[in-house]
From TrEMBL:
This is DNA replication protein DnaC. It comes from the Bacteria. It comes from Paeniglutamicibacter cryotolerans. Signal peptide: none annotated. It holds the Pfam family IstB_IS21. GO terms for molecular function: ATP binding. The lineage of its organism: Bacteria, Bacillati, Actinomycetota, Actinomycetes, Micrococcales. Residues 27-131 form the IstB-like ATP-binding domain.
Amino acid sequence: MNPITVQEILEAGKHASLTGSVLTEWAEKGTPKQREYLHGVLVAEHESRLESRRQRLLKAARLPALKTLSGFDYTCVKFTGDYGHEPLESLDFIDRAQDLVLYGDVGTGKTHMATALVAAACRRGIAAGFFTPRRW
């Protein structure tokens, strides 16, 4: 394994909101083993913060139940044009700042799909909410 560089420590420290000058000073003083340890701590802190954010977003989304799209039956779903379930599952519509409207008969999976998409957005760190016409 290659020794951790000062630059790698600085990058990891940015995610932990630590001052670059302090990180540089301590990273330059440290031995390769100490740099490796410091880098590991900073990366673990960043991952912990990301997970906490995802959990906060999921809670704030007020989902009626936590759902996923794995194994979702798309036989009752009709997409417009060349749009299909792959761009939907990739949350492509969010990246392009487009709205998504789900409509159809009772029992076709609209609520399941909506909650799964909101949960997927939250897991990606995107703030999203679940709304029914009653909550508007």
